[in-house]
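Reference record:
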Amino acid sequence: SNITTSDGTLTIEAGGADDKLVLKGDHTGGTAIHIDGNENANSIIDIDGGSIDIDAAASTTIDSAVTSSITSPRIDLHGTVLEMSASSFTTITGNSSVTIGTGGAGDINLNATGDVNIPNGVGVTFGDDGEKIEGDGTDLTINSSADINLTATSDINIPAEVGLTFGADTEKIEVDGSNNLSIISNGNTLVETVTF
């Protein structure tokens, strides 16, 4: 059966304040309802509603051949697992921040199978910019507003022939490949014992 108009607008309306329009297809193994508005790439299917509720008993797929957008003051995505197959995630508004948080006390886990890459000159901050780790492509800088505590439960390993400098290379402690320890000082070297 067909309802067809060769020209002009076709309107199907349930006009009562408590009426609804039902479109129902009972196909059990394929397409049950087909809405075709694809006469041209500029053809538009326009759905207006106070609220739009889409319920699916199985999967939901939206395919688009070009860029698509969802605009809303807030978008909530609920699911045990959220998978994104895109190779990049970028904000389209300049200088916009992206916040990733948990609703409670849960962790945020980065389960990359390769590296987690941060560009040169972009730091990882802890609370504020005074607590930051940043690389420039050559050197790595660790900033702290106060102390830096290395609380390893085993050794802190520095390779042979890599020195620990204090202000300049002329103030350095270094071990060579033959297990010789060198303490280099541009001035006096003082070894003091202090009782606390």
